Amino acid sequence: MKRLPIIFKRQLASYACAPGTYVSVAVFLFLCTALGLYTNQWMERSNSDMHIFFELHPWLYLLLIPTLSTHLWSDEQNTSLRDLMKTLPITAAEIVIGKFLAAWTVCGIALTLMFPVVIVANYLGTADNIVIASQYFGSWLLAGSYVSVGCFISVVTRQRVAIFLLTSGLLLTISGLASILDALDHQAPIWIIDSLISLNPLSRFGSIDNGKLTLRDSLYFTSMILAFLSATIVTLNHKSS
User: Fold this and answer.
1) pTM flag (> 0.90)
2) Which of 23, 127, 131, 236 might form a disulfide with 122, Cβ 3.0–4.6 angstroms?
3) How many Å apart are CA 209 and CA 134, to the nearest integer?
4) Closest CA to 68 of 10, 42, 107
5) CA dihedral angle for residue 32, residue 199, residue 185, residue 202, rounded to 10 degrees
């Protein structure tokens, strides 16, 4: 893992040079702030936390994460990955983890740029910063799990449009799992529904978003990240062999 920081810095610089990164982050922040302030009338309601902002993140990530995923391999499109891995002393794990951390860092920066809303909440004098911190952490973990899905899709196919559509479709399916569970209610065995509920990332994120940060939910998102990154590394090694 000695060369992981090099991959990380290179991918982060690629994001910094891509106009799409700034556009996607700006759209994410604008929609989150506008919908939170005006649609849910946050100023007129209890604002001890930022639940009405963070509850939008699973859907807004459907715009941000696929855009970041399309840039994961943009620098390697004109270079044979097989020759790259053979000529340079670098492993697939270093490439995948470095690129994943760079995309996850961009998500963290996007979340950090929401600080004016936190300042407003504290200025109004009713903010619970411990709950807000757990909401930030939960959203960042959710973003990491979504980014890991994007990493896997971007290795399966290198076409940008296909990456965007496949990542958006898969994340939309995951986000809409709650609706599927409602449709299966009274039509499927309880153990199947309970199993699907336990695998639903939105239910896990919902509990964290409500200020209930638990080790179980944190480990769930961590396991999801590790599972998709492992699948990405295996796929990359297979395509490079």
Assistant:
1) no
2) 127
3) 7
4) 107
5) -10
Tens place of pLDDT for every residue, the chain, 241 residues? 777 888 898 899 989 998 989 999 999 999 988 887 776 666 556 555 677 888 888 888 888 998 898 888 766 654 555 565 566 677 889 989 999 999 999 999 999 999 888 888 787 767 778 888 888 888 899 899 889 988 988 888 777 777 777 777 777 666 655 555 555 555 555 544 454 455 556 666 666 656 667 777 788 889 989 999 999 999 888 877 6
As given in the structure block, the two tokens for residue 107 are 């998500």
Q: What are 47's two structure tokens?
A: 């604002």
- How far are the Cα atoms of 41, 63, 111 from residue 38, in angstroms, in the given order? 5, 20, 19
